[in-house]
Write a structure and sequence with these properties.
By secondary structure, the protein is an alpha/beta fold. It contains 17 helices and 13 strands. The chain starts with a strand and ends in a 12-residue tail after the last helix.
């Protein structure tokens, strides 16, 4: 008996990557039904038809439903993948461009851009969660919708459904580290003290031994930097934290540099993605095409499908294993609240996620950053639920990227105004 999988936001150009993950595991994770749902019927049909061709080309013939009706997509599903973008790329572009005019970093998941994204996304995820509770109460929701950590914090603390957040960055880091160590990925287990898009790898376990101290030895680090430009670029942060940082720490520790780079850029990342998606949709629409194109890598999300389908395989019982996921803290990071959502290593098996205790405590620099950003995330959820401007401003005051009231106050007001139609809680009827 195979699984019933629903994908919400199936008009995303990422969706064919999920098909690749299903194809790789077709023998161990049989797929009985695939439900594809999106609010954009045109994109749903283009991407959905392409996904069907890709599956058929690889010998998979599940029952496939394409629908704009959320209840139909969810009915009796075993697993739900949420990959929605509230406001689409147009809203992302605003998130990236508006802050630059106020001297703040414009980015889709962190800073005030990520904050506004959360305000838009949380109400929509609330509707999806309510539908899951009604039509698929036993289902697991795997959330990819950005900002993943904040959205998952909302889901786990404000809804009764089974949810877990996921990001492709940890598996990407695992791949990079395994390559440096010249080992298969499955032999490398990461220990993280992190929130989504904020934190660091504090231990690297190989055969029961933490090899990170050796990796961070000055001589070894210099050699690694010669092999990997990423390590070269992040070396000052690595040495500061004595840990391997998440990519997004550049926005915290190189704020002025990143601001200047974004202000000088010819276009935002969102604007670049519009062009990439146009080309991808044109490729998907061609009925002759039955393989996922290499250009999809330009869209980002490296190893996205591997992370998502591997996690579903573990939750189904088909392939138990370790995953870095977004879950409630429950004592893993002792200086953060129990119900706070963190990004940490877990052992995942059928219907069960077990957190792996940290063996290496984060240093003071990382500790202080995690405390402040978690305060920001907690208040961000409250702001999204209540539509309260003062709560929103308090959230931004906690985030090191936005903690400048002269900039954050007018920028917040402009961000709210430009998103007025998508943020009704902030504009109640008089």
């Amino acid at each position: 008996m195979g699984i019933k999988l629903a994908i919400i936001g199936a008009g995303s150009t990422y969706c064919p990557e999920l098909m690749q993950g299903l194809i790789r595991r077709k023998d161990s994770l049989p797929l009985d039904e695939l439900r594809l749902s999106d609010i954009d019927e045109s994109r749903l049909n283009i991407v959905g038809e392409f996904c069907e061709r890709v599956l058929l080309e690889n010998g998979l013939e599940p029952r496939i439903t394409r629908t704009m009706d959320l209840s139909r997509a969810l009915d009796g599903a075993d697993f739900v993948v949420a990959q929605i973008r509230a406001g689409r790329l147009e809203a992302r572009i605003r998130d990236e461009k508006i802050p630059l005019g106020f001297g703040l970093i414009g980015q889709e998941t962190t800073g005030i851009g990520g904050f506004t994204n959360a305000l838009r996304t949380i109400p929509q995820m609330g509707d999806i969660a309510a539908a899951i509770e009604r039509y698929a109460p036993a289902a697991w929701l795997v959330n990819f919708s950005n900002p993943s950590g904040i959205v998952t914090e909302y889901l786990l603390n404000n809804t009764p459904i089974k949810a877990v957040g996921l990001c492709n960055l940890p598996i990407g880091a695992q791949e990079r580290i395994a390559k440096l160590l010249r080992l298969p990925m499955e032999q490398v287990r990461l220990e993280t003290a992190s929130l989504n898009h904020c934190g660091a790898i504090t231990a690297v376990h190989v055969g029961g031994t933490n090899v990170l101290p050796q990796m961070l030895d000055s001589r070894m680090l210099a050699q690694a930097a010669e092999q990997d430009s990423w390590i070269q670029n992040y070396r000052p942060i690595i040495e500061l934290l004595n840990a391997i940082p998440n990519d997004y720490l550049q926005y915290f520790y190189y704020r002025e540099r990143k601001l200047q780079e974004l202000q000088a850029a010819a276009q935002t990342r969102g604007e670049a993605c519009v062009d990439i998606e146009t080309r991808l949709l044109s490729y998907y629409a061609d009925e002759r095409n039955r393989t996922v194109p290499s250009m999809l890598a330009e869209r980002g999300g490296h190893l996205y499908s591997e992370a998502a389908i591997a996690l579903i395989a573990s939750l189904s019982g088909a392939a138990p294993g370790y995953h870095v996921v977004d879950v409630q803290n429950r004592g893993v990071i002792d200086f953060l609240p129990e119900n706070s959502v963190i990004e940490t290593s877990c052992f995942v098996e059928k219907d069960k996620i077990t957190r792996v205790p940290l063996t290496v405590a984060p240093g003071e620099a990382l500790r202080s950053l995690l405390i402040s950003v978690k305060a920001y995330e907690t208040l961000a959820v409250q702001a999204a639920i209540t539509g309260d401007r003062q709560t929103a401003l308090r959230a931004l005051a906690c985030n090191p990227i936005t903690a400048d009231l002269d900039k954050a106050t007018p920028c917040l007001e402009e961000m709210l105004l430009q998103n007025r139609s998508l943020l009704p809680r902030f504009f109640p009827q008089s």
